[in-house]
Amino acid sequence: MARATKAAKQASHDKIVTAASEMIRENGIEGLNITAAMQAAGLTHGGFYRHFTDKNALVCAAITSAFQQFEQAIIDDANRVPPAQTLSRFVDRYLSEPHLNNPAKGCPVAALGGEIARQDTPVQQAFQAGVARLTALLDQLLAGCETARLQDGTALLAALVGGVTVAHGAGDAAAQTATLNRLKAALGPVTA
Fold first, then answer.
1. Phi, psi angle pair for 147, to nearest 5°
2. Which CATH class is domain 55-191?
3. Which of 74, 54, 92, 69 has its CA nearest to residue 21?
């Protein structure tokens, strides 16, 4: 019975973290509402403190989860196709309208980067750890590729995040798409 209870608690915990992960990417960290996150997980607000000491603990878990989800999609692709194809597909997906218009499922750096400097140290550290893992993953992919412009995971991530940020402010959908396409062209093709 204790194992079932522990498993049920972990399942509830995971639902809360997943809901919060999507909410912070969609609405920002300051926009995270604990009651809404609990409801999205199918739970009541009263159960929150059985899982987290405070909102920052939830935010740290949500940031970690957001990076893990984002990284796992890249890893899954890398397990199916060569590094050059994985990287090319990653850049195409990153600089796409679906990624631009669905931050809840997208890159936590693009969604949260602008507000991390104003967060408490543990939140900043969770974000920094995620960025370090993501750039290391991109470095691994880049090691097996030739690109026209970039050979560094940090530089590539910065260019992609910047492209999405600029596209968000570009105006209508046509201007946003044009911005994304200009960056794709500037980055050049990825080859083995």
1. -125, 160
2. mainly alpha
3. 69
